[in-house]
Amino acid sequence: MDSAMLEIAGRRVLICASAGTVLAKPGDANDFLAEAWAQEADMLAIPSERLGEDFFDLRSGLAGEVGQKFANYRMPLAIIGDLAQWTARSCAFRDYVREANAGSSLWFVADCAELVAKVSARRN
To answer: What are the tens digits of pLDDT across the range 3-30?
Structure first.
């Protein structure tokens, strides 16, 4: 599947393709941000399979650095996918997901339907 632009409650959300460059280090986030800006997106959604394993290990600092970079550039980020294996392994990561989902700059959602619901609820 190629990247796709969705219009959700007046917000342009770029959904990245499932295959492609993996976000494995903080600098890789720049490529994703550049693509979002090139497409004039208001929000970016990255499938979880495009994230390196270090993203799910909070000790690596990758998730925090990436989340902060997107927040600094005011580009909300959603991670789409089943995170059960990662949340089962780490209470810290499970707590991180829960806290991120309470905010507005980084969300973890199971699928596009959950993303649409969350964006729609936040825009009303």
So the answer is: 999 999 999 999 999 999 999 999 999 9
Are 58 and 89 in contact by the 8 Å Cβ rule? The answer is no
What pTM does this model have?
0.93
Tokens of 76: 């909300």
Question: Domain range spanning residue 94?
Answer: 4-123
Number of folded domains that form the chain: 1
Other C-beta atoms lying within 10 Å of the C-beta of residue 106: 21
Burial class (CB in 10 A: 0-12, 13-18, 19+), 105: middle
Distance CA 50, CA 80 (A): 10
**One-letter amino acid identity for 40?**
E
